[in-house]
What we know:
Strand order of the largest sheet: 2-1-3-4-7-8-9
Bound molecules: NADP nicotinamide-adenine-dinucleotide phosphate
Strand content: 15-25%
Distance between the termini: 34 Å
Number of strands: 9
Structural class: alpha/beta
Number of helices: 9
Amino acid sequence: MTTIAVLGNGRVGGNLAAALNRAGHQVATADRSPGSAADAARTAQIIINATPGAGALERLVGLREQIHGKILVDVSNATVDGPDGLPAGLLYPGSSLAEQLQEALPGTRVVKTLNTMLYTVMTAPGALTQPPTAFLSGQDPQAKQIVRGLLADLGWHQEWITDLGGIETAQAAEAAVLFVPHVIRSNGFAPFAISIAR
Ligand SMILES: NC(=O)c1ccc[n+]([C@@H]2O[C@H](COP(=O)([O-])OP(=O)(O)OC[C@H]3O[C@@H](n4cnc5c(N)ncnc54)[C@H](OP(=O)(O)O)[C@@H]3O)[C@@H](O)[C@H]2O)c1
């Protein structure tokens, strides 16, 4: 059993919190109300960022003390959105939110994962007709191993998980969000994930 703080209580955060709770973890969720994120993060071993990517860097740097020495799992996408509300570009071209977080928070182990799929797939990867891929990016092998365990609790088979390497590889995983508006316009909101076929 791990104590987990999920920051953001929307589609992604609510879905992850419920599934991790069902898996037996002690989960606290935080919304945007003042103090809510600090309270949840203070007692957690793992913090999951499921808030909008724009502003996430400032929000998490503001929690520096509460997340020091812990694992920060970043599942967000930092995008510039188009008039239709869908992602139209990257907020950190040539870098990534995860890299910026790791640089700003050297005392926290950042792991990027799960941002390359519709939120429903994060907790029901077996529901797609083909196996999806969950990518991992992060500097710390032990932190990635712990996140692998959480993914297993969410239904991810180990062979569906691809460790891309260090945090600099999150640039590729985050760029996958550029597929999203085109996939949605083409296929609607049917659950999907970016997968590596072998
Ligand atoms: N939806 C997907 O399928 C999907 C897939 C992969 C990755 N993501 C990423 O996951 C993150 C969450 O997406 P979502 O679809 O769950 O969004 P969402 O449903 O809009 O939920 C966002 C959550 O963050 C909170 N929030 C918004 N602005 C905030 C602020 N300034 N400070 C603190 N909390 C704030 C919201 O609170 P309020 O309710 O008060 O607004 C809400 O609880 C985003 O970065 C998104 O790019 C989404």
